[in-house]
What we know:
In chain A, 35% of the residues lie in helices and 28% in strands. Chain A has helices spanning 60-76, 105-124, 152-157, 183-200, 213-216, 220-232, 234-238; strands at residues 3-6, 14-19, 24-33, 46-52, 86-95, 133-140, 146-148, 160-167, 172-181. In chain A, strands 1-2-3-5-4 form a five-stranded mixed β-sheet, with helices on one face. A four-stranded antiparallel β-sheet of chain A has the order 7-6-8-9, sandwiched between helices. By secondary structure, chain B is an alpha+beta fold. Chain B has two domains: 27-46 and 241-322, GHMP Kinase, N-terminal domain (Ribosomal Protein S5, domain 2); 57-233, Ribosomal Protein S5, domain 2 (2-Layer Sandwich), CATH 3.30.230.70. Chain B has helices at residues 16-22, 24-32, 101-105, 130-145, 193-206, 270-275, 302-322; strands at 51-55, 63-69, 72-84, 108-113, 155-158, 173-188, 209-210, 213-216, 221-224, 232-233, 241-249, 262-266, 278-285, 288-295. In chain B, helix 1 crosses helix 2. The termini of chain B are far apart. The A-B interface holds A 60-61, 63-64, 66-68, 71-72, 74-75, 78, 80, 102-104, 107, 130-131, 167, 169, 171-183, 186-187, 190 and B 100, 103-104, 130-131, 133-134, 136-138, 140-142, 144-145, 253-254, 257, 277-279, 287-298, 300-302, 305-306, 309. Strand 9 (172-181) of chain A pairs antiparallel with strand 14 (288-295) of chain B, so a sheet runs across the interface. Chain B: GO terms for molecular function: mRNA 3'-UTR AU-rich region binding. Chain B: InterPro entries: ExoRNase_PH_dom1 (IPR001247), ExoRNase_PH_dom2 (IPR015847), ExoRNase_PH_dom2_sf (IPR036345), Exosome_comp_Rrp42_subfam (IPR050590), PNPase/RNase_PH_dom_sf (IPR027408), Ribosomal_Su5_D2-typ_SF (IPR020568). Chain B: It is found in: Cytoplasm; Nucleus, Nucleolus.
Amino acid sequence: MPHITTSALQRADGSATFTSNLYSILAGVNGPVEVQRRDELPEEAYIEVNIRPGSGVGTPRERYLESIVASVLRSVILVHLHPRMLIQVTLQVLQEPSEKLMKGKGEVAVLPSLLNAAFLALVDGGIPLETTMSAVLVAVDAAGGVVAEPSIKELLICQSVHALAYDLQGELVMDQSTGVFDMGIWEGVAEVASERCKAAVASTEDTDEMRDTDESGEPWLRTALEEKVRAANAWREQT
Amino acid sequence: MAADPSPAPTSLSFPRSTFAKLTPGPFLHAHLKQNPPIRPSGRTLTQFREQQITTGSLTHSHGSAVVRLGDTTVVCSVQGEILKAADIPSPPDESADNEDLLETLGLLVPNIELSTGCSPAHLPGNPPSTLAQSLSWKVRTLLYGSEIVNPEDLQIMFTAPKIDEEDDAPVPEVKAYWTLYLDIMFISLDGNPFDAAWLAVMAALRTTRLPRASWDADREAVVCSPALEHYAHLTLHTTPVTATFAVFSTANPLKQRSEAESWVLTDPDTSEEEVCREALTVTVDGKRVLGIDKAGGRVIGMEAVEECVKLTFARWKEVSTILP
Lengths: 239, 324
């Protein structure tokens, strides 16, 4: 289960940290704020994503990750509510595995953490959103076994690695897959990932026998959002 | 005296090109609404643009290709340069398998140049845009990830002559490496830059011929044979082919999601890309899938992804026969 803190930054409109078993990401959101003239869009908000790597300065790798995160966030944020404005998302990688993941696996592996952190920061910043989404990392080992939330050792020897994101309605928001696989394996991966994302927002009160906590994970996103709502309504209960 | 003939009443209907410029979204929608749906370019939904591949146009590089995909034109040049093993600060472990060798040493260096005046969206002379940088990274990832280049082709070996009869047979050692610089210039850009760039990279790599290089122990330098018959092709392991799809959707946050209609457009051009938010790129090699890259929206579900992968397999069959 990932570790989440919200409102980690004092001066940002919204912020969150998201720590999975591999990466720790700090996300900050500012917006809606005034936009630079060249980025201004007449009918919707411009989404700017900045990614800072764990060490060094941004490279084309970060530009590539930024373009993916921005396009996913654009499909989740209600951009038409803030025309000619800017919503700025800054993601800082705080911790990453010391082993270097080659052949594009490293980029795919970091994406779910980046997206989850960015989404939680957007919620914290009160940016109007169309839906709730969560992302999950899935790896396929040499025998074709599907492993959700793989460890770094499993990632180093896996055949393929997949980052998928689903929304509350169970629609596929993002899929980044790399490695060698076939469509049968991909279907299995998509199923495991959608189960995981469904479990992340599953009702906490519903102690139904159907829900197998060990299989598909904890409702981490719902817990985080519920805590957020409780904190926001605390003043109401005091008066 | 006859009065001036009054000017013909101006018509309120626009010519097609004005309609396309004023409201690109409804223009594309009007085309796609027809039965069967047809795109403004006259293509069907699943039709790729005509491609044209010319190789060996650049005489100074070791391999080159010009690829046209509709109105998108790309030049790719492959230039080999020599990296001496002694100049590598932390040389890789000899015993380690050379699966990750290319990436550890960075022996394949792609660079995409969009600031050539190829499209109004990319001003000439500007620093590399986010698109150019992320495209370069995508090409780089695919080059290393698909293991297309055989690491042995890029190693320059040297076997020390046997001095003493009692010595063991000398082991060949790597004295230098070839580094391949892949410069990808867009001459004109009309959508789908990644497919065009990758096709150009493939065509250029398949026609790349490197001179025979050997280590000269006396001069401590690498010497290349100028003889043309000593130039050798690279042995490429795989032929990955990519296909990009864009999704046009009438989905709107102000409308019910169920009312939205959507169409998947194969190989989009700029006018289509501008009004499509969601995109999907599939990379395949023969029967294997090497990558799926989907972002930007929530219209494409599992079935649509599988449909696109099928189309990409068909595309692979077609492209692998026309590649040089």
